Each structure stands twice: as structure tokens, then as C-alpha cells.
Known about the structure:
Chain A has 124 residues and is an alpha/beta fold.
Amino acid sequence: MTLDIRVEERRPLTKTVVLEGRLDHESADAFDEAVGVVLGSDATVLVFDLAGLEYITSAGLRSIFRAQKGMAERGGRALLLNPTPQVQKVLDIVKVADLAVLFRNVQELDGYLDAMQKKIVKGE
Amino acid sequence: MILRAPWLDDGPVTPRSFLAGEPTAPVHVPEAAPRRARKGRVGGVEREFRVATRELGPALDAFEACLRGERLPEAAVLDLRIVAEEVLTNLKKYGHDDGAEHWARLRLTFASGEVTLEFTDDGRPFDPLAAQPPDLEAAGGERSIGGLGIHLLLSLVDAAAYARVGSTNVFTLRKRVGATEEPS
């Protein structure tokens, strides 16, 4: 197995998929399966924690795009957290920043999610 | 000077003899095989990997181990691994439609701070340089997910060339990798 996948619930209605290893043609199916479970839950935010992701290929990018689309279709969103320089390079090449909200660290992400939660509470 | 890998003891591999597929056992790469490259090295290293299209992992792992053995910078190793994986995955998915096992060849040349990868396969004619680029400006849900691999691999190399030679595709990629890392 080239990829270790762990799903955590660090905040209510938020699932964090922690990836360690390589998201490539071999591991994309296992990744899709894990994401499928999240899409079937009541989570409104899906966070991909990329700190342990060594590299990503087009097979992995397609899986992430599908996850984003799947979350958007059910009114949620998928966010990317803390990519390594190697992964960041690939994300830049395919202009993922145009599609996904990307955070460099947990503090940035928490700030964003707190702001989101306040909006929901206020009914915005 | 071209150095031949010690485990390739069955003579030069030409596209015709190689793609004939005999013998069909995957190339075994001995663990101690890689030679050490040093800064300023003028000579070249050439290795060949036979790739079974049904099972890309072993050849990709051997290729990556070879790059590490040459002490290329880590970022270059990972870039080249991605490049090889994209080319070969494309071949696996679209190169043939007869359901049979096929073989491709990856020739790696490393000289003067530049890595050259030459992929040869007997798949249907396919020029990656003429492929439709992906639409990277489209909105999320509308974005096409086709063509990403070719766009990615071409972005990670410095030069690319394609030729149809007889019944084979020959795809050549070059990447400057700078100085090799000193042994720790």
C-alpha cells in the first residue's frame, strides 16, 4: 500500500482525511473509497490534510476534483491543508488554487472554519 | 561512454527484439546495482527497464531506486517518478485494446546534470505533444479531468519529443537536475 488514509472528526460536521504516502494510480481507488464514506455522512466540510503526502499524480488530482464536486453537490465543501512543497508544485501546475481553498496550517484553517460557523449561526 | 547495467546481460535491446517480449519475466534490479554519481561527472549512465503494462509498480519502483542510487536531488527523483508514472499509466489505459499483456521499455540516461527518459512501446500511435490540453480555467464542477496527466508530466520536464518509429511510439523527455547530492 502506497498510501495510509485516516479519517478524523476534529470538529463537528467536519471530516479530516489525513493522507500519508503517495496518492497515485495505485492508491487512488482506496482514496475514493474513503472519500465515499465521508460523502455518505452528514459532514459539511471535508478537509484533506496533506502534510504527510509525499507526492500526487494526475490520478490523485482527479480523485480530489471528484471529492470537491461531490461535496459541492451536497452543499458542502472540500478544503486542502498544509501541502508539502512537492505536492504544492503539482497543485500549482494544474491551478488547483482556482478551485479549492487551500490552507498552509491548522491555525488558518481553524480561523476559516470558525468564521464559517459564525455565518451559519447568524443564518447568513 | 555508455555504461550498461550489469543485469542486462542479454545483449543490446532493440525496439524489435525487446517488444517481441521474450523472455517476458520482469527485469530484476539487484539492490546493490546503482553506481554513485558525483558532481561534475562528465560520463553518462544508461539503464533500461522493461515495463509490464499490467503491473507498473515493480518497474516504477526499480526506476526510482535507480534515480536515488545516482543521488539526484529528492525533488528531481519525485518529479521523474511522477513523469514515468504518467506516461506508463497512459499507455496501460489507452495503448492497447486486445486485453493482452504488453511490454514497454524505459531507457534512462544520466549525464552532465541532465536526465533523459526514452519510452518505447508498441501501442497504438499516440503523440502526447499533440494531445488536447486540459481546460484549467473552467470552474470546479465544469473542469475537464482529461488530459491532466500529460499536462502535468510536460510541466515537470524541460524538453519533450515524439516519433513514430515503425510500429512503435518513442517518447523522449529531458530534465535538468543540477548537481547530485553528496553521500551522507
